[in-house]
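QA checklist item 7 of 12: single-chain prediction sanity check.
[x] sequence parsed
[x] length recorded as 904
[x] structure emitted
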Amino acid sequence: MAAATGRKTGAKKKTTTATGKNKRRNTSKAQERMDAKVRDEVTMIISFAVALLLFLCNFHIIGRVGDALSRIMFGIFGWLAYAAPLLIFVAIIFGTINYGNHIATIKLIAGVLLFIVLDILAALIGGIDRIGTRISSYYTYSADYSAGGGVLGGFFAAAMHSMIGMAGTVCICLVMLIVCFVVITEKSFIGGVRDKSRRIYDNALEDRERRRELSERRREERERMRLESAMYEEEYEEEEDEEWPEELPFKIPKKRSGKQKDHLFDDTKLEPKKSKKKNNAAAIVKTQDTDTKSENEKGKDPLAGVRINGVEVSDIGIQDVSQPIAPIKSESRNHPILIEPVTVAKTEPAGTETVAAKAEKAEEASSFEDISEKIVQEAQTSIRNSEVNASAKVKLEPKDLEISADMKQVAKPVKPYKMPPLSLLKKGENKNGDSTRELKETALKLQNILEVFGVKATVTDISKGPAVTRYELQPEIGVKVSKIVNLSDDIKLNLAATDIRIEAPIPGKAAVGIEVPNKENSAVALRDLLEAAQFRDFKSKLAFAVGKDISGSVVVADIAKMPHVLIAGSTGSGKSVCINTLIMSVLYKAKPDEVKMILVDPKVVELSVYNGIPHLMVPVVTDPKKAAAALNWGVAEMDNRYNKFAELGVRDLASYNKKVSEMTSNGGEELPQKLPQIVIVVDELADLMMVAPGEVETSICRLAQLARAAGIHLVIATQRPSVDVITGLIKANMPSRVAFAVSSGVDSRTILDMNGAEKLLGKGDMLFYPQGYPKPSRVQGAFVSDDEVAAVVDFIKEQCDGPDTYSAEIAEKIANMESSASVTGGSGDGSSRDEYFADAGKFIIEKDKASIGMLQRMFKIGFNRAARIMDQLSDYGVVGEEEGTKPRKVLMSMEQFEQLLEEI
C-alpha cells in the first residue's frame, strides 16, 4: 500500500515537471516570435529610412554626404540609381515577410536578375563603345554624367558585347526580361499574347458586322428617298397647267451646225399666270434634274479629283461657251438680255410654229448660238418682273431684236477660267533630317557646354524644323539672359556649327531658344504648302504660302492684312524664289477678275516668264522709267478708287464690291463694275531709286500710307538694304518685313531694326516679321523651280483668248505718265536747252565722270553756265543727283543718250 502510494506521488512529480518544461518552452517560443516580429518591424523602418535618404541623395538635397552617396550609386548602377533605393527596400520587405518560402526566394532571385538585365540595357543605350574597356571608366562616366549602366551594367554588357556582339546581347536581354516577368507574375506570356490576339479578332468581327448593318440602313434610306422623289415627280407631271402665253416674249433661232435641232425649252415650262406654290417648287426640282443630266452628258473633267481651296475642280459651276453670245435689244429694257441655246423637246407645246417662224425672221438680224438654259431662265424672270399687267402678253417685233455695235462689244464671249492643277508642281522629298539620337546628343552637349561656363540651364524642349533645330533652355533662377547670349561664339565653337542664333527670350515662354543648323536639310516644296489645309481653307484671295516654321508647321499669310511687304536679302539668299512663291500662291488662289498684278522687273530675267497671263494688267515692266510711271499710275488709281468709294458711301474695297453686287441684283442702270485687288511687285528697288529716287519714294510712300483700303498692295524687294535705298519714309510705311541672309548686322538692322538676319543660312532661310508679330519668326521658305513656274504659266496662258490679254487703257496711261514726267522733268522745250547740251552729255558719258569743273575746262565756259548744263543733264536722267563733294554718277550709255536726243 505504501509502495503504491509512493509510485503515485512520483508520477505526479514527473507530470508536474513535464508541464513546467512545456510552459517554459512555449513561453520562450512566444518570446522568440515577439522578438522576431519586433526585429522585422525595426528592420523595415530602418530600411525605409535608408532607402528614402538614398533616393533623396540623387536630387542633391542631402548635402555633401548625400552628393558622395549619389555619386557612388550612379557609379555602380548608372541610370537605375534613381530606382535602386526603392527596389532594395522592396526586396528587403519581400524577403522579410516571406522568410523560408521557397517560391518567394525564386521570385526574389528573378527580381534581382531583372534589375541586372535592365542595368545592362542602360549601359548599351549609354554607348559602351565611347567609354572604354576598363571597369573604372564605367564608374567614372556614370558618376560624372549620371548616365549609362554603371559598373554593374557596364561589366556584364562589355563581356557579352565582346563575345556575342550587340545584336546577341540585346536578344539575350529581351529573353531574360520575358522570363523574369513570367516567373515574378506567374502568368503565361504566350497565353497572354494568344488571348490578346483573340480579343482583337473578335473586335474586328464585331466592327465588320456593325459596318455592314450601317451600310444596309444607308442603302434602304437612299432607296426610300428615291421612291419618294419619283412619286413627287409623277404628281407634278400629272398636274395640268392653267394658262400659257400665246407667244414667247423673245425669238430663239434654230441651230444650223451639226444635227438639225429646234431650239426651245428642254423639260422647262413657262410658268402660268396663276400658279400654285406646289407648281413653283416642282419646277425648281425639275430644273435641277435637267441641269444634272446636262452635266452628265458633257463627259468627265480632266481635272476631276483635284482639290483647289477645298473644292474639286469638277464641282465648280463653270460652263464652256465656245460661240459669241449676242444680246437682244429691247425697247422695254435698258439693259441687254443674254440668251443661250437649249435643246428642244420632241413634244412641242402649243404655239411652237409661231415661235419658230418668228425665230427664223430674227435670224436675219443676228445669229444666236450656244445659248444656255440658265440664262434663259434669268431672261424669263427678268421679263416677268417688268410686266406691268400680269395678264398682258409681251410681243416683240423683229425690229426689237436689232443689235447695235455697242451691244456686240458688251456681249464679248467670256471663256471660263480654270485653276491650275497641283499636279503641275513637284512633291517634296520626305527626308527625316537629323535623327532623334543626334538631337538628344546635341542637347546634352549644349547643356554641358553652358555648365562649363557657369550657366546652369536645362533643355526643356526641342523643335526640329526643315533646316534649323531650336533647343529651348530654361535657366535656373539668378542666371542672366545676357550671359547666355554672350556665349554664342563659344557655343558655336563647341558644337562645330556653321552659325547659331539665340532668341532670348522666346515670346510667350520662360525659355531661351538656341537655333542650331541641321546636319541634313530638308527642302520645302511649294506643292506641300498648297496641299496643306491651312492654305486650302484660307479665305483671302491674297493668300501667301510662306513656308514652314521652326516646328515644321505650315505658315500662310494674308497680303491684304500685311498690307505691304518689304523683302531684302543678298544674292543667293532666296529672295527671288520667295517672290515667285508669292506670285504662284496668288495664281493658285485667285481668278484674273479677282486679283490683278503689276510686275516690275528691272533685271529683266526674273519675272518675264509671267508675261501673257490674264492676271497682269500690263506686260512685265523692265524699264526703270516705266516702272516709276507704273507706280504713279497706282497712286492715280488709288485716288480714283477713293472717289468711287465716296460716291457710294463705303470705306473699303470689300464694302464697295458688296454694294455693287447688291445693285446688280436689284437691276440698276449703268452700274459700276466690281474692282479687283491689285498687287504691285517690285523686284529690285535699288535700280528705281537710282533713276528716279524722288518720284519712286513719293509714290511708294503714298501707296503705303493710303492704298490698303483701296485694295492695292505693295511687295518691294531689294538686294541692297542700305539707307539710301530703303529710306526712312519707305521703311516707316512698310509694316511687314521679310529678311533673308545679309552680309552684316547693319543691313539686318536696316530691315528689321534688330540683328539676326546676318546669321541666317541662305537658300530660303528667312526671318518673317509681318504686322502683328512681337518678334520675327524663323521660317524656311518654299522652293519652286523654273520648270514648275513655266508649266503653271503655260496652263494659264492656254485659257486666254489671244495674246492681247492686257489693258490697253492702263498701258496708255502709264505711257502718258512717262512722257509727261520726261517733259516736266526736263528743262522745257528744245530752245531752252543749252547749245552744249548734246556735246556735254557725250563728253561726260565718254569720260564716265560728271563734274561742273570738267565742263568748264572742256568748253571754256563759266561756272553758272556749266552748272545749268549739269542740271539739265540731271533732269533728263543722264547723270544722277548731287552727292556733296563727290562727282555725279553717269546713268546712261551712249546709245541711250543718242536715243534721248532723237526723242527730244
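[x] summary fact logged: The chain has five domains: 2-187, 277-416, 436-517, 560-797, 826-903.
[ ] second reviewer sign-off
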